Amino acid sequence: MERSVRDHVPSLTALLTVASLALVFGAVLGAIPETVLPRASDGVLDAIPHVNAAVSTVAIATILLGVRAIRRGNVRRHRALMVASVGLFGAFLVLYLYRIVVRGTAEFPGPEAVYQYVYLPTLAVHILLAIVCIPLVYYVLLLAVTRPVSEIYETRHRTVGRVAASLWLISFFLGNVVYALLYAVY
């Protein structure tokens, strides 16, 4: 199985990306019925954005620490931190999509000018980078899990990983800006 995955990293990256984006857009556009999920209490639903902001902040830290680890040559620590980053992103996404399916998207409560000139552009860049990151993260993850460390250096893992980590960091940071605008500032 690992050999099969190893030989088809680009194809599997594309497949996982399409499936992930279909799930995200299905949730955001209301294609996933609320009735297929158990209903959490309003307290739990209200807590999800705050939990996700914390998860995003921890993910920023794990990505930065993972980059630092690999720059110092500590492959084992790098791997652990980047796997933790992927796990945090997965937890964030599950909670976010659950809340979207059950409750819908949050409306911006602030002034129209801030909505148009700050909130929407920040949200748009955050979403765009999150979408762009999906195939990049899958690609480097699949390269990493299907090869011994000695062979990873012969792949595009390092090059794509640098781009993925940079865009992922910006996306997580902008997500926290969106959170602050929705739940702290206004």
UniProtKB/TrEMBL annotation:
Gene Ontology CC terms, in alphabetical order: membrane
Membrane recorded as keyword: yes
GO molecular function, one term: cytochrome-c oxidase activity
A Pfam family per the record: DUF420
InterPro entries per UniProt: Cyt_c_oxidase_su3_a-hlx, DUF420
Membrane spanning stretches: 12-32, 47-67, 79-98, 118-142, 163-185
Annotated keywords: Membrane, Transmembrane, Transmembrane helix
GO biological process: respiratory electron transport chain
Domain of life: Archaea
Name of protein: DUF420 domain-containing protein
